[in-house]
TrEMBL record:
UniProt xrefs under PANTHER family: ANTI-SIGMA FACTOR ANTAGONIST TM_1081-RELATED, ANTI-SIGMA FACTOR ANTAGONIST TM_1081-RELATED-RELATED
The family this protein is said to belong to: Belongs to the anti-sigma-factor antagonist family.
Protein name: Anti-sigma factor antagonist
Pfam families registered for this protein in UniProt: STAS
Entry-linked Gene3D superfamilies: STAS domain
A GO molecular-function descriptor: anti-sigma factor antagonist activity
NCBIfam families named in the record: ant_ant_sig (TIGR00377)
Residues in STAS domain copies: 19-110
Superkingdom of this protein's organism: Bacteria
Organism of derivation: Streptomyces capitiformicae
InterPro entries found in the cross-reference section: Anti-sigma_ant, STAS_dom, STAS_dom_sf
Length: 110
């Protein structure tokens, strides 16, 4: 018997507020979900001067794939003279950023 393996769709919503794209991510950002998010975030950061806010408050788990996704998005935004902000009020997420040396890399709000 063969098993069908499917990639879970990342759970996110998007809205534009005053020219800023706000993406609310929910659930887990891990090896299985990060790849699907890469394509969407690449599209959102493809133009000149992207202004992007990633709301991570509803995220329950993030692994190194999720952190790599955040770094990739940041690099794309900066290469296009844009701005990326993270909203994250979880002490656990703040600790992950500190432990990985990424605390000062992102513009983060609680």
């Amino acid at each position: 018997m063969s098993e069908a393996h499917t990639m879970p769709a990342p759970c996110h919503t998007e809205r534009v507020v005053g020219g800023t794209t706000v993406v609310e991510l929910r659930g887990e950002i891990d090896l299985l979900t990060a790849q699907a998010l890469v394509a969407r975030l690449d599209t959102l950061t493809a133009g000149p001067c992207p202004d992007l806010v990633l709301d991570l408050r509803p995220v329950s788990f993030i692994d190194c794939s999720g952190l790599a996704l955040l770094c990739r998005t940041r690099n794309r935004v900066l290469a296009r003279c844009g701005r990326l902000r993270l909203i994250a009020d979880s002490p656990r997420f703040q600790r992950i950023l500190r432990c990985t040396g990424l605390a000062g890399v992102f513009e983060t709000y609680r």
